[in-house]
Amino acid sequence: MLIKMLALALATVAATTLPAAAAVSMPEPAQGRTVELTVTTNDGQHLPATLHVPPGVRAGAPGVVLVHGAGPGAREYYEREATAFARAGIATLTYDKRTVGYSLTERSYSQLADDALAAADVLRTRPEVDPAKVGLWGLSEGGWVAPLAASREPRTAFLVVIGANGMPPLRQHSWAERVKAEHAGIRGSMVTAYSRTFWRLLDAMGLFAEAHHDPTPTLRSLTLPVLGIWGALDRSTAPVENVEAFRLNLDAAGNRHYTLRTVAGAEHQVLQSADGWAKGDEFAPGYVELMTGWVHEAAAGRAPATSIEAAGEQSGATREMRPPSLIESAPVQLGVLGVAVVGLGGFVLASLWRRLRGGRTSWPAYLAAGAGFVAALGAPVYISYLQAVSGGTPTANGTIDPGPLVAGRTLPWLGLQVLAVVAVVAAVVTFARNRPTGRHALLLTGVVAFVAWGVWWGLLLP
User: Fold this and answer.
1) Do residues 251 and 172 share a domain?
2) Distance CA 183, CA 193 (A)
């Protein structure tokens, strides 16, 4: 009986107190609340998404979709930006980047733009958001994708691009690789091999997706409000040239409401940085206020009139990277390498066979063939290794570690250059001393192809 009375008392207390407790709403976090959603693309992909709702907002907020930079992208990568927007009263949608149809060698900016528009459609359906105030924000590679998406959807209220490019991806990437190599202390022809020749070969082989995407037609079609921001110390995107490219193209579009800014003390993602390489955990001062304040004005139909305040720091000019000509095509390049390898290697094998049968081959001929064979294969293999394993893997601050340098060259590259010179000199000595035979035709063919290959890769250049 006592137990029953206690249970009844507890039940009575709960009945009278729990409704009152439920009626007291817990305060939202300073960054607001999140809602898990799904973006369905036009090819049937289902991309997980998160809506960051500003604190206290139930309806009518401006909204923005964050469009990814290059590489695989989970939505959590943009938590900083989403939180900053939400705290400023802007509903923000982040979504996982597609993995099907997107890789190092396969991607379509048109398809990615459609994904961004699908995300914007999801955002417009949310009760917290005013569908007439939804815009796009794109970082880096997203600076090609988001403008393309905006150009296709007249309902896009505004466009924000961060570290964007007004030039094709291959041109931008080659510049960034050169800056990275020079910062590491590399000099001379090795810089060109690392930042230009290697990537031109990949492009010729069809392994650099969207290499020659031209953003000019898209930018020249944009008349909606546009905000472009670059870190003044950006080492991935040429800030001076790209501000100018956006200015020229948006002027050509007749756009009267664009704002272009560089942020002092900021790197590519506009995080704090003293040199553009090392980056802090916080955004550079003034960036968030500039970005969110402008979005509120643009979403409200009060986009500021065109203005430019840019003072970026750029290490050298970018260089045009045209689509491969016939002589630069993959069949020609790989064909020249093949002729060099077969000619030089074939001469060595033929000479060894002759030696087994009692004949002789002069040592300069062996030296020319052997050194040329190693140098011809060694150049692309070593640069590929440097890109993929050593030099191509950024350290924590975005720089590379090429190892010991001599006269601005790594020891392996210097060794390959020495072998290239030895091969040419030994070939000259061989043909000066010996009357050409059938075997020497192999050597001559291989050496001629090797010289062309060696000049192209910089092995025979300073």
Assistant:
1) yes
2) 15
Give the torsion through C-alpha atoms of 178, 181, 184, 187, to 10 deg.
-90
Q: Extract long-range pairs of 320-325: CB within 8 Å, 24+ residues apart.
A: 320/171, 321/168, 321/170, 321/171, 321/174, 321/196, 321/199, 321/200, 321/203, 321/211, 321/212, 322/212, 323/203, 323/211, 323/212, 324/200, 324/203, 324/204
Q: What is the pTM of this model?
A: 0.89
Count the neighbouring beta carbons within 10 Å of the beta carbon of residue 285. 12
CA distance 456 to 30: 58
Please name which of 357, 346, 301 lies closest in space to residue 449, comparing C-alpha atoms.
Answer: 346
For residue 316, which of 239, 255, 404 has the smallest C-alpha distance? 239
Q: CA–CA separation, 153 vs 293, rounded Å? A: 23
Nearest Cα to Cα of residue 180 among 410, 409, 414, 393: 393
pLDDT in tens, the chain (462 residues): 333 433 334 333 333 333 332 333 334 566 679 999 999 999 999 999 999 999 998 899 999 999 999 998 899 999 999 999 999 999 999 999 999 999 988 999 999 999 999 999 999 999 999 999 999 999 999 999 999 999 999 999 999 999 999 999 999 999 999 999 999 999 999 999 999 999 999 999 999 999 999 999 999 999 999 999 999 999 999 999 999 999 999 999 999 999 999 999 999 999 999 999 999 999 999 999 999 999 999 999 999 999 999 998 899 999 999 999 999 999 999 999 999 999 999 988 887 877 777 666 688 888 999 999 999 999 999 999 998 875 444 444 567 888 899 999 999 999 999 999 999 999 999 988 876 666 688 999 999 999 999 999 999 999
* Spatial CA neighbour of 190 closest among 374, 406, 368: 406
Residue 236's closest CA among 315, 125, 149, 128?
Answer: 315
89/219 same-domain check: yes
Q: Name the residue type at position 37.
A: L
- Residue pair 271/284 in contact (Cβ under 8 Å)? The answer is yes
For residue 108, being part of any structural domain is answered with yes
Residue ranges making up the domain that contains 42: 33-199+209-309
Residues 362 and 298 placed together within one structural domain of the fold: no
Distances (CA, A) of 8 to 3, 15, 461: 9, 10, 94
Domain identity same for 247 and 343:
no
